[in-house]
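Appendix B. Raw example, untouched.
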Amino acid sequence: MKASVIPAQITNHEDTITGNLTLTQLILLVAPVFLSAVIFALIPPIMKVTADKVVILLLLGLPIVLLALRVKERLLVNWLALIARYLLMPHIYLRSIEDENACECSQSNEEVTQGMQIQDSQDNIKPISIHPSLAEVSFMDRALVNRKIKYFTDKEGSINAIID
């Protein structure tokens, strides 16, 4: 049996149901219809159109329909998920040298600058994710200004700090 390579243009293609609409877009466009049916059936006066019901439907349905729009070849709902993941991920890492169940430090003694103390490559370091309070951020800022903390970056781009 002969193996062949599938071109990237085919693997990147999104499946469309009708026209240029994908399944996610169809679900986002049909959801307000079902939501309006539930609202018309449950809110009094039952099964009658009132101004209150129309306002509720517009306030709930319009944002759902807007999520089906495309911006730079991606749905708005995908952009919002991407932004939410970025905002929820930790942005400050501290490394604890004492922990034995962590990754190994890859710095060698030649990379050590004067005044910095880096442990041997056998010592284990574990990244710790924190969300500091305003007082802690202020303390860290003052420590950096007063040069109580020396910091350096490794090959992966993470920042390592040493407190004098």
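End of appendix B.
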